[in-house]
Amino acid sequence: MEDCSVDWSVWQGEMPATLMFIVRDGEVLLIEKLRGIGMGKINGPGGKIDPGETPLECVIRECQEELHITPIKPVKMGELWFAMSDIPDIHCHVFTATEFEGTPTATEEAVPIWTKIEDIPWDKMWEDDAHWLPQMLEGQKFLGRFLFEGERMQWRDVQLEDAGVSGWLIS
Length: 171
Ligand SMILES: Nc1ncnc2c1[nH]c(=O)n2[C@H]1C[C@H](O)[C@@H](COP(=O)(O)OP(=O)(O)OP(=O)(O)O)O1
What we know:
With 171 residues, the chain is mainly beta. The chain has two helices and eleven strands. Its cofactor is Mg(2+).
């Protein structure tokens, strides 16, 4: 992997966003994204944070809009910092939950897919996911930083909180 051209000490993602991974009985609720960034990929529900909205408010709203469900007691597990080449840099807050209200329902934005954790379709997902999602699903909090050229990951660094990194990252 090449050296990183980004100075992360001054980096600020212009586009704040969220992701949610609901886990239940050894399965995780993924979606096929029907529009927006990453259209056609498998991901968790989520999306861009609206002005004035907190990450928690956003991730609940996005689950309601995309799947007609409301996650209960979401827990923030980490952050993803994406330095992008062709769109604004993305600062993504990642949550998990084990309970939710409602029935996951396909919408114009997303198709819900309950997936056994051992069957997560990495080849249909963003390239970075394989470097932090398994650890997060085991309960580890994290900061992942990635450099993308288009949809190809050029550089990555994932730090786990239990490896002694950063109480500051989780809010
Ligand atoms: N590289 C990578 N890995 C994992 N997840 C993501 C990325 N890049 C990303 O953008 N994402 C996630 C972050 C967000 O959850 C979505 C992108 O937001 P988007 O769906 O475009 O936002 P919405 O507000 O729902 O969009 P529209 O309503 O405008 O369609 O992908």
